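Ticket #4471: structure output looks truncated?

Reporter: J.K.
Steps to reproduce: submitted the chain below (336 residues) through the standard prediction queue, then opened the result file.
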Amino acid sequence: MTASEVREWVQDEGNLPTWLSTWDEQELIKRFWKSTVANNSKNTLSNRATAVKQFSEWSLETSLSDVTASDIEQWRDELVTDDYGYRSVRQKLYALSTLFNYAERHGKLQANPVDSVDIDHYEKTKQEEHLDKEYVSKDEFAKMKAACDTTRQSLICQLFWDTGVRIGEAVDIRLDDIDEGNRSVTIETSKTKKMEKDQERIVYYSRKFESTLNDWRYRGDRESYLGASGSDYLLVSEEAHQMHETTVGDILRDVSKRSNVLKEVYEDQSGRQRYWPHPHALRKSYGVYRTKNGMPVAYLSDLMGHSDIQTTKEKYLKFRDDDRREADRKYRPNPY
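Returned output as attached by the reporter:
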């Protein structure tokens, strides 16, 4: 379920899709989706619509007020049985909960049934279930860097490692966003609400990345791709003036395979094989190593574009046992 699909039927002012017309509270549901479109990012909108669609197609209830905590628990358990990761299930229930919260605020429900469902321990992602760590180590990154055959491959690997940007932010970088004097890039933070989408932050890069960036921009490497003609985007391809996120992931996977770092993690619901590392794994490395080197979490949260410092702590600072053991040795007081 894409954000554009949701916007289309919200703007259409016509009948709701079949998967939403099974419930009685049609006017309330229409107002809920209008509010969701107006105040949330594309990703949030898409995730929320997907979760509500899945539940509405699963549920036999004809009214939101008929849905019980027991119904939610059964759906939760079926998702787990269908091999969804724990965190994915948790996120789906949170997304579904927004609809029930809206109904409760507008007097259609006495209580949100999701609130009574236990999901506190649903923390692990599919990646975490199969990997001992989610970030790329310094040795692994060195192997990946050495396996790069082109300047474009090196640029992509170093961009995530040096700046910690999201993949959607990386493909949106324009040449004018780069301040060479300060070795910095202005990023339009992608994970914000629709009304805040012009929020910006500045990230910084190293002298090593500066050298690769100069090769890409000024020594003909970028211009060798057909998509560079007339494009003001940093990342281009043969086919497009702005590189697609999928292409970025494919390039990183090819480099990881040649460096013997690539791992097959699991097969998703659509039958696609999921691999590690992906661009987000390098973003995690950005957070982990800066924390290890003593960067205050408040600074890190700002550099990574998080609106809530708790997000930085919970999602990007997960260390392995040997990381914690090393930290304990480093900060242990002298013998008394």
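Triage note (M.O.): checked the attachment and the full token line is present. Residues 138-319 form a domain with the hpI Integrase; Chain A fold (CATH 1.10.443.10).
Status: closed, working as intended.
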